[in-house]
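Sorry, can you check?
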Amino acid sequence: MFDLIRVNKVTVSRLAMGAALGMTASAWCAPAFAQDTAAPDAEKAKEENVVIVTGSRIARQGFESPTPLTVMTKEDIQNQSPSNNLADFVNQLPALAGSTRPSNSRLALSSGLAGINALNLRNMGEIRTLVLLDGRRSVGSSVTGLVDINTFPQQLVKSVEVVTGGASAAYGSDAVAGVVNFVLDKKYEGLKLSADTGITQYGDGANYSFQAAGGFSFGGGRGHVLLSGEYAHTDGIFKTSRKWNAHGDRIIANPDYTATNGLPRYITVSPGGTNNALPGGIINSSSGTTANSLRGIYFGEGGSVNHYDYGSLSTSSVSVGGDWALADNGRNIGLGAEDDRRNVYGRVSYDVADWISVWGEASYSWTRSMFNAGPQLSSARTLSASNAYLINALGGDALAGVTSVSLGTTASDLPYRVTNNQRDVQRYALGAEGEFEMFGKSAVWSAYGQYGVTHTHEKMRNIMNTAKTTLASDAVFDSSGNIVCRSTLTDPTNGCVPVNWLGTGVMTQEMADYILGDPYRNQKLEQTTAGVNLSVTPFATWAGDVSLAIGGEYRREEVSGYVPTEYQSGWSVGNFLPTFGSYNVKEAYLETVVPLGLGLEFNGAVRATDYSTSGYVTTWKAGATWQPIPDFRLRVTQSRDIRAPNLSELYAAGTSRTNSLTDPNTGTVYTFLETTTGNPNLKPEKADSTVIGGVLTPRFLPGLSFSADWFQIKLKDAISQYYSQDIYNRCIEGHTDFCAGYTPDPSGQRDYLFTASPFNFNRITTRGIDFELGYRRPLGDGAISLRALATHYIDNVVNDGITTPLDTAGTNGGYGPPSWIYRFSATYDTPTFSLTGTARGISSGRYSASYTECTSSCPASTTLVSTIDDNHVSGTFYVDANATIKLGDSLLGKSEFFLNVTNLFNASPLLLPESGMAANTTYSDMLGRSFRLGVRFELK
């Protein structure tokens, strides 16, 4: 890959040109615009004879790729980042939708994804976005291949470049939705230090970071050394005390609905709360002579006996009014992860001769994330009428004729479940690049080899052992009147400790220690890559030089792991199994740029790829730009892109998750345990991508630029799988093959057990329009820069070939991209200070594509789309502010003090009619108004 693109050594000394996507120079101190719209960058490039390559392997002066590119500079990051984590800033870009972050991955209990910062372009899934560091792939931080942005040397990032179009012909698999490249300042000279600290206005979420970077030349300027390090910490917020999470909006089955009366099947209600799982337990049903004679008895502090008020309206899981607020499953839940990052990076380069420079680099990253994954919720724990604690609580008379009770509890006496994942990522690379003359023109070449390894320790704390929990729950009196486990009567040395589920403040530490454990999995992910690249200008036509780039790459991905036998089965969640497997891929590519005259230029590329698992596949790109006048440029690209199955999809030995589903006919909620295994027969996904757009830079208004690009991605053979809710729905619809996918849970801990594996069966179609507006002009002794980015998602349709496809575009409930995602920033920058304001958010929309809103004369409800009286949810609008004071030279060089205020007006998250965390954690600011104060020093 183009790890270094240069025309001469003078140019290289001025600009550290990154790999792969090509570089755009950061000419402004204020936010720079995208490559398409950054006229000052282009002018500077012309003056310095710098080759700028954007989304292409072609090294050529003045070449502008037909594929859209958005660039965020170091100044953007410093002035606008809401935290000390770069991923939080990048995820504000409208082209990114649905990314995985610590705030929305707390329930990734068994997949190992909790705590990762992974990027998702176009809402097509993080696995379809290729993330690069200086133009090269990085080893994944999960078995699914997701690259964690936390592992990058953030102090050295000088720009983030986002290619919003298929790029498999240039970069291979995974670039279906696009590419995000983090470009490092590899030729930095000097020393820079920074430190910051922050907190929310509620006094929680405290965080701090320290960063240092230094670089110097040696050998008369032929060599260069670069070092950087970072330490960052964020306190976790393990309880949700924000007022917005107590609003009580819920969806329940309409009690007045019939299939023929035209009323909606579901209604939204408030205040509503969970009624089938309370902190000290509630009896949801009882069996015996008189069924449900004990229903509604709940247990409070010290085991006190109370009767639940089900309010004006109730279902099997929700009550409206009455005691709706007793449930704590929305409070005893994490709001923010505790996070630690430590990164070290080093690089050495040396110009051996005029035509060759050699380099080597190494990096190490250690990250740890810990999160409250929620309470020990169970809505169907069966206790025998002979249970000693039940007898003590209710007395023998109340239990006369009763054989058993079903208890729902969030077990507030037990510690909450915790995801505690640790990852260390190492990368080592050696390479060479240079420039020489071929065909009478400059030719640029590069070669590299890289090895990366990730060690993950995926640990879950405070997880219930199902066998021990069953034994401990069966508590009886022995002959002496002591409470013991029934199993102890026949096996006195089995160590069983009886557990009291009835009340709060009644469970001892000994009880908790007996039933809880900390299952874990260790995994080792390895990636070996190598590549060679050559860009030449072999000949010219009457219209200009014809450019050509050729190259080849090799990559091998491997996974291995270890799980102690006792943690492989028998737990309420986790049940980890180690994954073993590997594959390799060999690739060769060819790309060309051909000027056709009259302002028209053609760009085409083709890549041949051979996978050891699925065989041969070809990807290609054909694009063109047309600039009939200097003020306007039209661009169009058509490409065939692929994504090969990852190690998890191929070889997963089995992961599991616990959750709940809803019967679409009755509204009954069932709990389940779902186990997923891999499929070695998967083949690559194939996408046809189209981008048509234009860039306007009017000469009559210098500094203004505007671009608009319509995009369409049609993905076929998409790797997907049916999960529990879909399997259940398909079964009750009459697709009997799906009924074999689940069985009742014989342990009684959940209602059902589900199994699932991935297959190539989905088709995904995404359409939308990207907009970008930029304007910069002098003002006083500084300059003002305005920038607006917006993406309008028109369609996001998933077709599984069985059910009627649903368009999830415009849904804000977490299952599809919002209709609009936008971001506007304004910066006033002077030699002594800078001020930046940012406005960002999403449009209002539907709660779910599975609902049709109506209040009367409703259409017939189906298992796929049901009617509801209110399917509307609000959007979000947040304002951030930054002020930076520049103190000029001092003993420590140039110094700056800055203050960032995120969510200046303390706007609430996007609220949803759900239990638990009743907000959209992906598109919302969950913490409220936050402050970050810091200082930067730079000595050159």
In short: The longest helix spans residues 39-48. The longest strand covers residues 417-438. The radius of gyration is 30 Å. Residues 1-54 have pLDDT under 50 and may be disordered.
